[in-house]
What we know:
about 220 residues, 11 helices, disordered C terminus
Amino acid sequence: MYSFLINAAYLFLFNFTSPFNFVFGEYIWERFYWIPFPGWIFYFTIAYYAGRHYEAVIRFIQVYKNWVIVAPFVTGFFLLYFYHSGFLVIHSSKRIDILVHTLSVIAFVLYFATKMKSIPSLFMVINKYSYGIYLLHTSYISILIVLLALLSLNIGIFTILLLFIVSITASIATIYYLNRFSFGKYIVGKVDISNKPKTVKKTKTILVSDNQHSS
């Protein structure tokens, strides 16, 4: 709760106030406030708590499963309403209402993850390349937006889907090919790109009979 209040108060300051009149004030209010830890502390707290008390979290989600299933759609509706009504028009993930929406999505994903008998291979691939995707996806989104503007191509709501698929696919491809070079891991993180199946080294077990012990 404390981390939520700290995070919410921090974002409230930058979401609903004007930049202070000093050097770099505009830049801090527009971009730099994304970086300091108070803007992320709630997510780290949730991750720690969910990992530390995983069984309790899953039980809670299962008990309130109806709310968990509905919550992302409700919070998503308010995100869109606040944006299109002009109440909160910041175009980034560092919005105060994103805190609640993110929490609802995490619970939603965890609930359905518990229903899976095995982890889909697509999820494993994304997990494997997740760090590099985080680093690169915004660059590819920016490039694609510029290309769409230059081509005067407007595909409406499908633009979101296109940006999502292309940015992730391009990021994974970049990570894969950069990791083929020795310096690649220093740019996008180290990823095991070998297709060789992992082998388990067998240890030789020596059985000693009772007669050998007595001798």
